[in-house]
Amino acid sequence: MEKTKQLIEKRLLSTLGGGENRIKKQHDQGKLTARERITLLLDDSSFHELGALVEHRATTFGLENQRIPGDGVITGFGTIFGRPIYVFSQDFTVLGGSLSETHAAKICRLMDMAMKNGAPIIGLNDSGGARIQEGVVSLSGYADIFFRNTRASGVIPQISVIMGPCAGGAVYSPSLTDFVFMVEETSYMFVTGPNVVKTVTHEEVSSEDLGGAKTHAEKSGVNHFTASNDVECLKKVRELISYIPQNAYETAPVPSVIEFTSAKTNYIKEILPENVNMPYDCRKIIDCIVDDLSFKEVHIDFAKNIVVGFGRLEGKSLGIVANQPASLAGVLDIDASRKAARFVRFCDSFNIPLLVIEDVPGFLPGTDQEWNGIITHGAKLLYAFAEATVPRITVITRKAYGGAYCVMNSKTLGADLNFAWPTAEIAVMGAKGAAEIIFKKEISSAENPSEKWLEKEAEYAELFANPYRAAERGIIDEVILPEETRNKLIASFKMLEKKAENLPHKKHGNIPL
Ligand code: HXC
After folding, report:
1. What's the 204 CA to ligand 1 centre distance in angstroms?
2. What is the rounded CA–CA span in Å between residue 193 and residue 223?
3. How far, CA to CA in Å, does 77 sit from each of 50, 102, 124, 132, 497?
4. Minimum mean pLDDT among 13-22, 169-178, 401-410, 431-440: which range?
5. Catalytic hit among 169, 193, 315, 433
6. Is 78 a catalytic residue?
7. Between vectors from CA 373 to CA 368 and to CA 374, what angle results, nearest 5°?
8. Which fold has domain 2-241?
9. What are the residue boundaries of the structural domains of the chain, listed by start?
10. Which CATH number does the domain 273-429+465-495 belong to among 3.40.1280.10, 1.10.1740.10, 3.90.226.10, 3.30.420.40?
11. Among this protein's residues, is 336 annotated catalytic?
12. Residue 464 pLDDT more than 90?
C-alpha cells in the first residue's frame, strides 16, 4: 500500500510539472500545457509516457533544490489515426522548458526508438533554450539532437511544432526536420533575440516581427504551416500525418472513402483564360484533378509564385508542384526554387510520387536574383528532380519556356512521362522576344518595323507556340485534353506504381546547397 502511494505521489509530481501557478500563467498566455498538447495531438488515450521520473543531476546555482520528475520534457509514444508516433513535448512550466543534459538525453532516446521502429517523430517545442545553469553539458545535448536529426533525415518523417520560445541554437533542430509548424503570437524562432539585435545592429524589432509565425511563413520560409492557436495547430499536424508514410520503406496510407465530383471534369476546361498573358490560380487546376478536398498546401505564404502540397489521386498520396501564374506570372526565382526543391526532396525520400503542373514563363531576371545566387538556388530544384526516383509526371498546361522548362521535371531530366494540353507552348522563349532577337535585322530595316515584328512574332508562334514540335520529338509523350487529365494521371501513376530505379553507387551527391 505504502509503495503504491509512493508511486502515485511521484506520478502526481511529474504530472504537475512546474506547479499550478506556472500552469495558470501558461494558460493566461493562450498556451496549452505540454500534456494538454499531447492529448490533442494523439488519438484518445493512446499516449504512453516514457521517462516520467527522470531528473537532472545538476547541483549548481540551486538546481539541486529544483528537481522535478520529467525534467521539463514529456516523452513517449502513441498513435495518430491508429498509426504509431513518437512525441516529445517541452514543458515551459519546468525551468522554462530549458534543455538540460537529461532533458536532451530523453529526446535522444526517443529519436533512437523512432528510428529503430520506423515511425515519425513529432517535437512540440516550448523552451527557453539551453539550461543556463548547466553550461556546456546542455549545449552538447543540443548537438546530440542535431546529430540524430541529421541521421534520421530521409529515414523517418520528423515534424517540429513551435508553440513558445525557440531561440539560439535550439532553432537548428526544427530546421533540420522536414516540416515546421508555428502558432501566431505565442511562438517565435530566432538565432539572436531583439536585445542582441539592438546592441549589434541598432535595429528595434519585436520578437513577433523578428521571428514570429508570420515572419517565418512569408519572409524566411522557415515555417511551413501557421496556426492561430495551439488547438488548430495540432489538428493541422494530424492532417499532415495522414498524407505521409511511416518511414522511407513504406507508402502513405490510403483513406477508406474516396470522392470525386464529376462536374470538375467539365470545369477544368474553363480555367485557362483566352489571353495567354492573363493570370489564373493554378490551385483551380489542381482541385479539378485530385480527389475532392484532398489538396493540402505546404508553405502557403512563402514564394507564392510556386504552389506545393499534397493531394490524393484515388486515395493515393501525391506531391504536387505547380507554377502559379497568379503570382509574378509564375516565374521561377530563388525562393520558389528553394521551396520546391525541399518539397521534392521530402517526397522522394518518402516514396510519394510527384506531379508537376507547369505554366512557367522563365526565371525572374534582375540583379537581386543574380547577386543572391539564382544560379545555385535554381540548380537545387534541377538536382532535386533529376535525382528523384519516385514516379514523376509533368503536365504542361500553357507556357514552358527556356531553362525553366528544363527545370520543371522535363522528360530529359528523367521524368517518367510528360503530357501537354493543346494550349501548351514549349519553346526557348515567348514568340515576341524570340522574333525580336532572330529577326532583328529584318525588323529594323522594314518600312514598318512594328508591323514586321508582329508578322515575325506570328510566324514564330505558329511554329513553336504549341506542343507539337515537342510531341514530334517524343519529348512530350502525349497531347491530352484538359478533361482527360485526371484519368490519364490515374492510369499513368498506376502503371508506374512498381517503378524501381537505382542511383549510381556513391557516398552521396554534392547538391548545390
Ligand atoms: C534556465 C530558464 C531558461 C534557461 C527560462 N528559464 N529560460 N532557466 N535556463 N535557458 C526559467 C526562468 O528562470 C523562469 O524561472 C522560467 O524559466 C520562466 O521564464 P521567464 O523568464 O519568467 O518567462 P518569460 O517572461 O515568458 O520569458 C521567456 C524567455 C526568457 C524569453 C524564454 O525566459 C529568456 O529570455 N530565457 C533565456 C533565453 C536564453 O538566452 N536561452 C539560452 C539561449 S542560447 P522561474 O523559476 O522564475 O519560473 C542557447 C544555445 C543553444 O540555447 C546552442 C545550441 C547549439
Report:
1. 21
2. 17
3. 8, 19, 13, 29, 32
4. 431-440
5. 169
6. no
7. 80
8. 2-enoyl-CoA Hydratase; Chain A, domain 1 (3.90.226)
9. 2-241, 273-429+465-495, 431-464
10. 3.90.226.10
11. no
12. no
